[in-house]
Amino acid sequence: MDLRQGIGLRKLGKTADDFQQDLLSNLFYRRGTTVESASARDAYETLSLTVRDRLAERRSRTAAAHFATNPRWVYYLSAEYLLGAQLEQNLLYSGTGELAADAVKALGFTLEDLEELDIEPGLGNGGLGRLAACLVDSLATRDIPAVGYGIRYDFGIFRQIITEEGQTERPDDWAFQGNPWEFPAPDDRQTVGFYGHTEPVPGSQTRKRWVPGEIVLGEPSHMLVPGYGTETVNIVRLWRARGSEASFDLSRFSAGQYAEAVQEAVRAENISKVLYPDDSTELGRELRLKQQYFLVSCSLRDIIRRFRLRNEGWAQFADKTVIQLNDTHPTIAIAELMRLLVDEYEVEWEEAWSITRRTFAYTCHTLLPEALETWPVHMFERLLPRHLEIIYLINMLFLREVEARFPGDPDRLRRMSIIGEGPERRVRMAHLAVVGTEAVNGVAELHSKLLRETVLNDFADLWPAKFQNVTNGISPRRFVRLANPRLSDLITEGLGGDGWLNDLEQLAGLESLADDASFVERWRAIKRDNKVRLAVGDPDSLTDVMIKRFHEYKRQQLKILHVLAMYHRIRADPSGDWVPRTVLFAGKAAPAYHAAKDIIRLIATVGARIAEDSVVSPYLKVVFPENYNVTLAERIIPAADLSEQISLAGKEASGTGNMKLALNGAITIGTLDGANIEIRARVGAENFFLFGMDAYQAANAHRQGYSPWAYYEADGELRAALDALRDGTFGEVGQRVAGSLLDRDEYLTLADFRSYMETQDEVDRTWRDQNRWSRMSILNTAHSGFFSSDRTIADYAARIWRVEPVPVPRED
Ligand code: NBG
Questions:
Q1: Distance, CA 224 to ligand 1 centroid (Å)?
Q2: 476 CB within 6 A, ligand 1
Q3: Count of CB atoms within 10 A of residue 473's CB?
Q4: Average per-residue pLDDT in the chain?
Q5: How close is the Cα of 98 to the center of ligand 1, in Å?
């Protein structure tokens, strides 16, 4: 038998009997229990292993195909992955759903019971992390050889509890009961240095020796990422920090100094303890930079190890490797690759720089200047002394290039420098990311345009061809097939097949069904049914959802002003013909972001007040399901009628929730921001509720002397809503929120209020014509095909990565 790459492996059977056999054997031999004493958790773990085995078999064929091809690889570096629950997805992708349902029944459980135990890895925070998960899904679906690298945080983003006091945070110990989807890979462990000093290397100008002051181990594990409708199974490799052997002080332990004995190990392990440690202290900020370097250092060494399995020397490295930097968090990789090449592998600086620049590409996910990361030079100097030297040299050579192109323009040099001057010198990571990469992309058309015109304008002048757009996308498998199975079945029936699941433009075929009375009726019945299952309000009311992180630029405060205005209108005319609405908010606020937490608290307060009001409550209900995550999103999105995408134009880079909602037949009320613009262009202006100013008007408003008070004075309804907050009716939190709106209103909430109200009235009028509404809903789904992450990956592959798929042969 030839054991390499599993050739000659006994095949896992395909019949119900085989599956049941494997399940039992896993129960006995891997879980170590018996049918009689198996708990639900035993059954869950065993089922997960049985499904995982089937993917692992495909994984071994994938690895064999990749090894034989020696292809160009995509490496995706990301601080976050919001993978979502794994069991249901992996049942679907391995085609074992029915076998599994029967097999667990024989053990006395239902699949639904076991799915309840499948905790999602909360290794991300918002859109950026979920995007990473959709992209790795589509990379595998498109047969592109790829690895996603990230950190295996012990604690994900916090678990949110909502009370009338607002949000409180609890640790999210997601892997407390273990994670059956993960394979440890201790052989690929890496060693990472921090602190210390550098020493010259005799005979070399550019090489240095870095002597770190602290050594930490990075232990990898990986999770399988199957493609849909294909054989490829890629991986996401996650690093966990460990103290080295030397970090345990046995002599102190023996002397009873238990805490001191492990303090160094604890310090090391803290690196992968939590996602985004609070950065309001210097220590917290340093820990974040440490995390970033830890991820980068482990991953780059792993990438080089993989490269060397099939290649020699460095000539081929940039041809065989593309590393995508997901935002600035992994940007230190540019300096680290230079360090590895120059210091450790003795490559000449120019050659190393040419390799580095051709290897990396950078995706920027923001326009908010405060979200473009910078690190104090003194912190860098202490933590990563060699990297700072390298960045200085990169910067010097870069500024020479700028000077040659734009002679005598010191202002431009100052603006473009990787080192920002000012009261505190700081390393500008976005600048490093632009200088050290071959391609830079924004995540929606408007965003990419504004990047070129504003934040990265000088760089776009210098290197216009470097700047590209790749509009974000979402996985239709997770967000329709798994989240909305009944709609998915109806679409499959309507289109005469399920080919749309990996060719989403096929949805356009639904257009002709938008006038088919029986199709429309079923469409509507499914939406209603999804509302019944969500169980937050009257299923016949208009379900109006705003689900996303809490941030002032996203303007949940505008939505709450609308709620207050409706409250006043209904109170003033209790017998009016009001369209009943269930307004649903969900999302987390950063623990240290007080203004955002105030908005959550205000929503809870207003919601409670309305619930007590017997005049208003028949028409208006505000709900806030707590702990928004992928699993909850999958329940809310299929039930939504109206999708709130109301950020101030020019602030939301793309949005991806907007795409998920449109794809599930919710109609958007939104500004001309991010991907809203592209959604509207595709679904049609008549199937989209537009309001508010555009990005250029918004950018000018403050400069032109914007005054929130002028809007307050001019608009009676707005004034009444704000007065209800100001006079303490909704407690101190209402006063604070109103205060901040009237004081500065950074995000022009009051300026867009009237336009928003008018458009909401239009929403109500449209809702009364249910046939029209349903037609709009169907057309939203029909024309959302562009927003598949499969298309996003095709764009990256063709325009940024220049990679080809490597199909994996089917089992014979
Ligand atoms: C977010 C943007 C969203 C965008 C996602 C994914 C960050 C820094 N940015 O608009 O705010 O959809 O990235 O690109 O998390």
A1: 25
A2: no
A3: 27
A4: 96
A5: 37
At residue 381, the 3 state secondary structure works out as helix
CA 224 to CA 220: how far, in whole Å?
13
Take atom 6 of ligand 1 and give the residue whose Cα is closest: 128
Cβ atoms of 212 and 197 within 8 Å: the answer is no
Q: Strand 214-226 vs strand 233-243: parallel, antiparallel, or unpaired?
A: antiparallel
Choose among 82, 67, 70, 168: nearest CA to 120: 82
For 154, the token pair is 């012990």
774, 524 contact by CB (below 8 A): yes
- What would the two tokens of residue 386 be? 């060699």
Q: How many residues does the chain have?
A: 812
Average pLDDT over residues 774-780: 98
* Pairwise CA distance, residues 443 & 434, whole Å: 15
- Cα-to-centroid distance, 788 and ligand 1 (Å): 16
Q: How far apart are CA 75 and CA 70, in angstroms?
A: 15
pTM for this predicted structure? 0.97
Question: Which amino acid belongs to residue 305?
Answer: R
DSSP 422: S
Q: How far apart are CA 116 and CA 44, in angstroms?
A: 9
Q: Which of 567, 591, 571 is nearest to 721 (CA)?
A: 567
List phi, psi (to 5°) of 582. Answer: -110, 115
DSSP state of 193: E
Read off the pLDDT band of 370 (50, 70, 90). confident
Ligand 1 neighbourhood includes 473 CB (under 6 angstroms): no
Which residues contact residue 83 at a Cβ distance below 8 angstroms, ignoring those fewer than 6 apart? 120, 121, 123, 133, 223, 236, 630
In the annotation, is 656 catalytic? yes
Q: Under 8 Å CB-to-CB from 539, ≥6 apart: which residues?
A: 528, 529, 531, 532
